[in-house]
Amino acid sequence: MNKFSIEGHTALVTGASSGIGRALATAFAEAGAKVILLARRESALQQLTYEISKKGGHAVPVAHDLLFTDDWDELAKHVAKPFGSPDILINCAGVNLREAWEEITDESWDTTLNLNLKTPFFLARALVPSMAERQWGKILNIASLQSERAFPHSIPYGASKGGLTQLTRAMSEAWSRRGIMVNALAPGFFQTELTQSIFENKEKLQQLASQTAVGRNGHLDDLIGAAVFLCSSAADYITGQTLNVDGGFSAK
Which residue in the list 83, 121, 157, 189 is annotated as catalytic? Predict the structure, then answer.
């Protein structure tokens, strides 16, 4: 038995249409998992499904806006139709509106906290019963450097990601005795739609790279090994942890 394999498992990846979600969905399909791609943009999901299928992988698109979910159990039933209920959940969907503190509104605050913090819990809770029946499940939350430190124009985002690391611990405490391990990845600076404005500023980009121990910013492929490991049986005794994948940014 290859404990590092995820072949034969079913992974639900939220935010799969772009950025980290897209990269991890692609990687998990290439590693042999059946992947449910969940995001708002149907055309992007269809394109990714085609790309995965062309390489021999198995994926299905589910176009859904998680901000407007009012029945989590119904969503769980819906995503279970193609391959059965997922035994791996990767919570990638998120938003950072990058507002100055005086520009934050009730609406923008709620949008950020609901998508980044509320959704990972309620979606996971809806999938837990089927994972518990198998006595095996993996939940991987995508945290942030801002889970531990502050950056400008990101008060709601920082609050949500700080909350997500604690949510990871709390979900672990609640569910790990049922065989469900819950962990988080905290990426450093990677080029995604959320960070595009930073990557367009060459001076800022170089400054951030110089703050890492390895001397560069992240490539999306840098996240794959840690993500697959934490969602494999090799990590069956790891739970409640947040792993920084940041090139040593947090170590300096």
Answer: 157
